[in-house]
Design goal:
- The complex is a heterodimer of chains A (295) and B (262).
- With 295 residues, chain A is mostly helical.
- Chain A contains 13 helices and 2 strands.
- Chain A has helices at residues 3-43, 59-65, 68-101, 104-115, 122-132, 139-146, 161-186, 190-198, 203-214, 216-232, 235-240, 252-262, 266-292, and strands at residues 45-46, 54-55.
- In chain A, a hairpin with a 7-residue loop joins strand 1 and strand 2.
- In chain B, 70% of the residues lie in helices and 0% in strands.
- Chain B has helices at residues 2-22, 43-50, 54-85, 91-100, 110-119, 126-134, 137-148, 152-160, 165-173, 178-194, 197-202, 211-219, 227-247, 249-259.
- The chains are: A mainly alpha (295), B mainly alpha (262).
- At the A-B interface, helix 1, helix 3, helix 4, helix 5 and helix 7 of A face helix 1, helix 3, helix 4, helix 5 and helix 6 of B.
Chain lengths: 295, 262
């Protein structure tokens, strides 16, 4: 090959590469990058979506510091996260261990049963939840009645709404995380367990000293993804209680949603979104440090 | 152990079972404490179908989900291929930049995304439902992983035969990408069929409602909610996802595993 031909091929390769990347470069730029920059810009303005934007500096950020409803929404979000994330983690891991202990046909059937709720959409899960948790006639209350527990208000109560919604979200998400855990467990070489078994480490010990450490990366991944997801959970909340009762389920994304789309405080809503983004980002970094750098 | 697993498994599908058996009851018996399927009012499905916006919303969801998925597969495969196989200046930067967009939680940019989409004149239209949903660094990333392990010899041979680089991709690499396209197609379709929040924000016109909006609307009637009909509608709306689940469970599981790869 002559140098000229190589350079023609090289140039051709550049053009093809950028041609192939162009749709996504434009799309990600317009629909992900620009919105972030735009949010930052809007957050520095007083704007109700109708009048022209009026520059207001850091006023929106000062306002949110003293907005009790905002901090209440953060508290609700964190409470939700602190209950939901560990529950999902433990239940998915236990389900994966259970699947791993099964053999043959049972394994396939059980896995299908555990994964099937993953095919239920978030709105459908909310609809089924509302039906089954009906305070007067719902099947859950009927079942509780069988063991002598009186009817519970569930979604109608400020103290039970969160657990009810968490239950519904857990239900459709365990299968997915179980599969991720299961595939990581399967990659652990059997000799590790055999060697440990010869040293007398079985059962809980082999789980504690072999399985768990070797699942560290997967665990970190699941924890971070689940935590980020828990900050964004909105579908079921919107459908099941619209943030109620008495704002008990008004999580931060819902508060931002209301400020922006209902009250049209676009600038303020953008500043809230930005702060929430920083909180999520910070938490992910902390988790990454805690769980991947240990040992 | 197997008995425990199966018992728990049946517990997991109990709500689905309840949805199905209750969807065939009458309005007065829908809450009856009867766990066995004793009533089969198939007419509920016909009623749910004809007395609601279900047909149109299902058509909208199918149209949006299929379009997004097909376009996304082509775009993401092209980008993934370029990042994995072509040499060009700025490759590392482009890849890092695309990956960084994955750090942005969707619900955080909801408001500015809505404003931008509106500026572009796409609000309250199929364009607004479809276009912003296409771009997703995650799909690009998985295609890149796939093409990195793609046999070089095939491409070299194609190039020697006189195919252009683009021709090599479209005629050789892309058709051989079925192992990655199938699980990703399922994942994208399910994610878009599931989509509720974005359509809720970007559409005002009821004619543009997707199926999840219609379902949420039907279930939002408070005390007057006709639960048997709502559940019948939920069953109809679940058919595509359940069919997909049962015919392609293997690929679905594969897709989940891929998403767990760090």
């Amino acid at each position: 090959m002559t140098p000229k031909r190589i350079s023609a091929r090289t140039r051709n390769e550049w053009v093809t590469a950028y041609g192939f990347l162009l749709p996504n470069l434009i799309g990600l730029f317009v629909f992900v990058f620009v919105p972030i920059v735009y949010a930052l810009y809007v957050s520095l303005h007083d704007w109700n979506a109708l009048n022209p934007k009026a520059f207001s500096g850091l006023d929106n950020y000062r306002k949110l510091l003293h907005d009790d409803q905002w901090w209440s929404s953060i508290r609700i979000t964190l409470t939700f996260s602190v209950i939901y994330v560990p529950l999902l983690f433990v239940l998915s891991l236990l389900s994966a261990l259970l699947m791993n202990a099964l053999r043959g046909r049972t394994k396939g059937v059980a896995r299908t049963l555990f994964l099937l709720p993953f095919a239920v959409t978030s709105v459908t899960s909310a609809v089924i939840g509302m039906f089954m948790l009906d305070p007067r006639n719902g099947v859950i209350n009927r079942l509780l009645g069988l063991i002598g527990i009186g009817p519970q208000p569930f979604l109608g109560s400020t103290s039970q709404a969160m657990l009810s919604i968490i239950g519904v979200i857990l239900w459709i998400n365990i299968g997915y995380n179980m599969i991720i855990f299961l595939s990581a467990i399967k990659e652990i070489p059997r000799d590790y367990y055999e060697a440990a078994g010869m040293d007398g480490a079985t059962g809980w010990k082999s789980f504690r000293f072999i399985t768990l450490p070797l699942l560290r990366e997967t665990s970190t991944f699941i924890l971070i993804v689940t935590t980020i997801g828990s900050f964004q959970a909105l579908d079921q909340i919107l459908v099941m209680t619209k943030g109620g009762p008495a704002n008990a389920m008004e999580v931060s994304v819902l508060y931002i949603f209301k400020q922006g789309f209902e009250l049209l405080n676009m600038g303020y809503a953008a500043s809230l979104a930005f702060v929430l983004f920083l909180i999520i980002f910070g938490l992910s970094l902390v988790q990454l440090k805690l769980f991947s750098n240990r040992n | 152990m197997p008995a425990v697993a199966l018992a728990l498994g049946f517990g997991m599908i109990f709500p689905i079972y309840m949805m199905i058996i209750s969807s065939m009851r009458s309005e007065t018996t829908v809450f009856a404490f009867q766990l066995l399927p004793v009533e089969f009012r198939f007419s509920n499905f016909a009623e749910a179908w004809s007395d609601s916006g279900l047909p149109r919303s299902i058509a909208n969801s199918l149209f949006v989900s299929v379009t997004v998925t097909v376009v996304a597969m082509v775009f993401h495969a092209m980008s993934g291929y370029a990042l994995a196989r072509l040499r060009f200046p700025g490759r590392r930067f482009v890849f890092a930049w695309m990956l960084s967009t994955m750090m942005v939680p969707f619900s955080i940019i909801l408001l500015p995304l809505y404003l931008i989409t509106k500026e572009l004149g796409m609000a309250n239209s199929y364009w607004g439902l479809i276009v912003p949903s296409i771009f997703n660094a995650y799909g690009i990333f998985l295609f890149r992983q796939f093409y990195r392990d793609f046999p070089k010899e095939l491409e070299e041979a194609a190039y020697m035969e006189g195919l252009s680089l683009a021709g090599t991709f479209f005629r050789i690499a892309f058709p051989l990408s079925v192992p990655i396209i199938v699980p990703l197609t399922i994942g994208f379709f399910l994610a878009n069929w599931n989509s509720y929040l974005w359509p809720l924000i970007i559409t005002q016109d009821e004619k543009l409602w997707v199926v999840q909006q219609e379902l949420a609307h039907l279930a939002g009637g408070g005390y007057f909610t006709p639960w048997n009909i709502v559940l019948a509608a939920a069953v109809i709306a679940a058919i595509p996802t359940f069919v997909l689940f049962f015919i392609a469970q293997r690929y679905l599981v594969e897709g989940i595993k891929m998403s767990g790869i760090k």
